[in-house]
Write a structure and sequence with these properties.
Elements: H1 2-26, H2 46-53, H3 66-74
Length: 82
């Protein structure tokens, strides 16, 4: 019974450590949004596009709502593809 309990505790610890590592990994600087490139844009500034989409520079792309950003951009007049 003790052997089973020890295995269970080790398994739970491994799961918890894996979840912590996963969420800490999402905040690594390599995943931070550094630059936004827009092609064919001449009416709206880059900062306005960031405001419309709700994207934040320096924040991990995995922690931002990219579907919301795309839908916000597609609602703008003159936007054909996003």
């Amino acid at each position: 019974m003790l052997k089973f309990f020890v295995k269970l505790v080790v398994l739970l610890f491994a799961i918890a450590a894996g979840r912590v590592a996963y969420f800490k990994g999402l905040d690594l600087p390599i995943f931070a949004l550094k630059e936004v490139t827009v092609s064919g844009n001449w009416k709206v500034s880059q900062d306005s596009i960031l405001t419309i989409t709700g994207l934040e520079r320096g924040k991990s792309v995995y922690k931002q709502d990219l579907k919301f950003a795309a839908s916000g951009l597609m609602r703008q007049p003159g936007v054909v593809q996003c």
